[in-house]
Design a protein that fits this description.
zinc; about 45% strand; Metal Binding Protein, Guanine Nucleotide Exchange Factor, Chain A; three-stranded antiparallel sheet; about 120 residues
């Protein structure tokens, strides 16, 4: 069953084909400061329901990952990232990380959370 989510002001809304079954907490400097819990999906499974101009993008360091946030309220909404194979990005295999804290009517506390040591990996 599809699940929807949105930023605080609802200017950025999205839909996923199904609820996540697990979440990821990353310890990199960016995620540690923003506090998202990521739910990952194949790029084709993510559907942005609002105009792309409502979304701003931040890239840092290697410009490998696109961190998107609402251009109006600033909530971190989703990321676009390549799959990593043998420690290198594979840009032919993109995935979307959705900030599960923004999912509508969804209990994130009911899911297991995997911690990724982004602080020391990249």
């Amino acid at each position: 069953m599809p699940i929807k989510g949105s930023c605080h002001c609802r200017a950025t809304q999205f839909e996923l084909p199904e609820a996540p079954t697990g979440l990821t907490r990353c310890t990199c400097s960016f995620c540690a400061k923003r506090g998202p819990l990521w739910a990952y999906y194949p790029a084709g499974a993510f559907k942005l329901l609002t105009a792309r101009d409502r979304v701003s993008t931040y890239q840092w360091n290697s410009y490998t990952v696109q961190h998107h946030h609402c251009a109006i309220c600033g909530c971190g909404t989703y990321t676009e990232t390549p799959e990593w194979v043998d420690g290198k990005p594979d840009f032919s295999k993109l995935k979307i990380g959705v900030n599960a804290r923004l999912l509508d009517d969804f209990d994130i506390d009911a899911l297991p959370v995997q911690v990724i040591d982004g602080k020391n990996l990249w």
